[in-house]
Design a protein that fits this description.
433 residues; ten-stranded mixed sheet; 10 helices; 37% strand
């Protein structure tokens, strides 16, 4: 494994040292994942799906092992008045002292991944994934993941309150590799929120993977709120499989990190599946964010809706690459894909590449993309009615961002997203509540 970064070798050595009693399948899959990463290395711009996102700066970083007592100096990232179950991880490791998990309803099991390895290794193995899944950063996550959340919903089970998974990058210059597994039985339902935040830990690296198995007629809402520090690196994967009649709603909100990449994919493995992929990002300075999505219509009579919006300022760059694949025989497919980017600066840059790949007849598919600045006519209209230029810009930018936020069904979650983007960019986005 000569091509493995030295710091990754340190992480792997720690995994090996703590592997006593680990199931044999886990050691084998971790080794294969390390070998894959060592052989292939980081993705490069020569690869089509990474053409606009270079990891050269990330490759130059050397990350240290996280502090063992980082959680002791942290406060809880929620208030007592906020509803829901809160499971907190510090540098990728479960922190019970910062968490607040209420009683689980019948048929719902929630544990840390590390605990699930001991209690239900066979269930973890079935959902864990393999070294071949995704790009090489996903393989690195599989090799080095120490902890994460394991949520199991039995047939018909409902988790009424939202489950909040909070990942805090607390140790300066450290990397974390959370891996979350969500297994939703037939007819079950839940809302899961992933928060990624920092504590001033410059150049931290989060490499996160969330895998969801959604059985027939289950309904899962997933919201990812990424607001790490301005010098952080974030690579995230959300990988979903959907059985017949299932519904998956995804909301990806990216407001932090120096470089953020979000890979989101779902595969319709039965008839009548539905999916919403909704995204909003804000980047300023020289920050870079990339959303790369794939929806596979593998079965007939499925519906997908995909909407991504970006607000860019200064010399920032935003990327959207989306692919809708309609397999042979997937008739009655109904798919819409759209990307819209708003440039607040002449130096900001947005790239959009929506794709349709269709091998079936009798389908309804559409896609489109826009990139532009605030409309001068609309600005003039608002100023003619008494608003100054700054206020007019606030109103128009708010209206652009609010369209993505209003697709979030939960009012408390809408409020959290609005607070996050308002705190980051109050001058541009005004009041989003």
């Amino acid at each position: 494994m000569s091509n493995l970064p030295s710091w990754a070798g340190d992480y792997a050595a720690r995994q090996t040292a703590g592997a006593a009693g680990a199931p044999s399948w886990l050691s084998a899959v971790r080794l294969r994942a390390l070998e894959r990463f060592s052989d292939e290395g980081w993705p490069t711009v020569k690869q089509e799906s990474w053409h606009h996102t270079s990891l050269a700066v990330l490759q130059q970083q050397a990350f240290v092992l996280p502090s063992q007592d980082a959680s002791s100096s942290l406060s809880k990232p929620y208030t007592d008045a906020e509803p829901g179950h809160w499971m907190v991880f510090v540098d990728g490791v479960y922190a019970p002292s910062l968490s607040r998990i209420g009683a689980m309803p019948a048929g719902v099991t929630l544990t840390s991944l590390a605990q699930a390895m001991d209690d239900a290794s066979d269930v973890v193995q079935q959902a864990f994934g393999t070294e071949a899944d995704g790009s090489t950063p996903a393989a690195l996550n599989l090799a080095l993941a120490k902890d994460g959340a394991m949520l199991q919903l039995a047939r018909g089970a409902t988790l009424e309150e939202s489950l909040h998974l909070v990942f805090i990058a607390a140790s300066a210059g450290a990397a974390s590799f959370p891996r979350n597994l969500i297994v939703a039985g037939a007819g079950s339902s839940a809302t899961i929120v992933e928060h990624y935040i920092g504590q001033g830990s410059d150049a931290s690296f989060t490499n996160a993977v969330t895998r969801l198995q959604i059985d027939a007629d289950a309904n899962i809402t997933h919201l990812k709120l990424q607001r790490e520090d301005a010098q952080a690196f974030h690579l995230g994967v959300i990988d979903v499989s959907q059985a017949a009649g299932s519904v998956f709603n995804s909301h990806s909100m990216s407001f932090g990190a120096r470089l953020a990449r979000h890979d989101i994919s779902t595969d319709f493995q039965g008839k009548g599946c539905e999916a919403l992929l909704n995204g909003l990002y804000y980047v300023n300075g020289r920050r870079h964010v990339d959303h790369h999505t794939c929806i596979r219509h593998s079965q007939p009579s499925c519906v997908s809706r995909e909407f991504y919006r970006g607000v860019l300022d200064d010399t920032a760059r935003g990327i959207f690459g989306g692919r809708i694949f309609v397999a042979p025989g997937a008739d009655k497919t109904d798919a819409v894909q759209r990307s819209d980017s708003l440039l607040l600066s002449r130096m900001a840059k947005a790239d959009a590449r929506p794709e349709l790949e269709i091998y079936a007849d009798d389908v309804k598919c559409a896609h489109g993309a826009t990139v532009g600045q605030l409309d001068p006519t609309s600005l003039f209209y608002l100023r003619a009615r008494g608003l100054d230029e700054a206020q007019a810009r606030h109103v128009l930018t708010y209206a652009f961002a609010a369209e993505a936020i209003t697709r979030i069904a939960s009012e408390p979650l809408r409020g959290r997203v609005a607070d996050a983007i308002r705190a980051l960019a109050p001058a541009e986005l005004g009041d989003l509540s």
